[in-house]
Fold this protein.
Amino acid sequence: MSKKKLVGFFFERNYRVTPQLLEEIPSDFNFENFLEKNNNINRSEEVIVLDNELFKKLFNFEEESIVEDNITASVEVISSYVDKPKKREVKDFVIYMKVRYNALKKILLQRSELQNAISISRLASKQAKEYVSIIGFVNSKDQTRNGHYILELEDPTGITKILISAKNKELIELMDEVVLDELVGINGTLGENIVFANEFYFPDTPLKEYKKCKDDVSAVFISDLHIGSTLFAKKEFENFIMWVNGNYGNEEQKEVARKVKYIILPGDLIAGVGIHPLQEKELLIKDIYKQYEEVARYFSLIRKDIKIVVCAGNHDALRIAEPQPKLSEDFAKSLYNLKNVIVVSNPGVVKIHKMFDVLLYHGFSFDYYVNNVSSLRDAGGYENSVAVMEFFLKKRHFAPTHMSSLYIPDIEKDPLIIENIPDFFVTGHFHYDIKIGSYKNVSLIGCSSFEYMSGFQEKLGHTNICWGTAVVANLKTRAMSIVDFREKEKTL
Ligand SMILES: [Fe+2]
Ligand SMILES: [Fe+2]
């Protein structure tokens, strides 16, 4: 009778139980308990043959390898953008810039060096050679034949030119990182309609307190599943799920998996539909609802004491203009039905384990900066997501240059400003090898993907695409490590 129930349970979810599996289920197997525990397993789109081996891997009825440790995962949403539908007018862009100016100026004014900053219109009342301090948006940046840089800076009261002498090697080096429309602070000597810069400041990030918690628990960071794509790294992702459930890897790796309480995933959950011209041929599931249902089916296999935090990416079923609000409750209904999944906007911030702020940003604006900022190119470009993340922590903004990313002007608050400094900053989007690093005690994690290289990526010259890896951050020690789920590498 109980075996029949089990068959029915799986049949409803499109799994076919093999006779051999039924035969080998031990006589003391607690069917009621099993069905209750796994009640929220979602329906599979394709028929899945559930043989002995797969059953053991996914549900592990032989031994309970994850010992209940009574440590409860806790996720609090700190910042998640909610769209206020409104017709945007030209004046909204003007107000938006004013809002951005005030917020970033406030950050710059936290520096003692800029305490005496004056508005640009007040330069006219100052004497020549007087030491002045100003804050403004970079309107233009030009290099003269002699190697000097001339910047045009603007604030709501006026415009002035700034000269950075070729002799000041330190500042000249910084000029590489200066991008149009960002807000910067300058101290220097007043000349005739020009300021000779001596000091130059980005809003930047102050040193963050390096927090560690008492519990020996971990957070895992993965990104860019692209479920629905024929190139979805299915095998590797299933290995990942088996690993977090305690059924994959060597003893040491199983021990690491046991401590996992959080999975953080910054976007591109699904392949999406109509994302690029060649995509049609690369889709296994052509329906957005079904793509999310498949994501939910996989998530439903992950042990329930783990909290999963996700935000959208440019492949998800949303506008690509940033910020992207939470995933649509219509398209991604199946995900919202899972109690241990928390959905936030992109960018979005959550507090995990009552202590650590995690900033999720998919990374769509990164392309522009990797392609346009020579210092980022020199640092490795797409190969070095951590350098790009540092760059954004210096700017305190995800899209300082207009048109580097589509954005929707918000007249109350600029949601692309990095207002509070997180403990962890995680991105995806690049699909290159994982990069981990640290800037001012902020742990930086540039995730890889779970998608094999696509023809489109290859065509664009992205030939170093990676997949099938995850970053584990232990919250007690703050140590970060990489787990590799690729089979052919034989790392597990
Ligand atoms: Fe992606
Ligand atoms: Fe992406």
The chain is about 25% helix and 20% strand. The pocket of fe (ii) ion (ligand 2) is lined by residues 268, 313-315, 362, 429 (CB under 6 Å). The first strand starts at residue 15 and ends at 17.
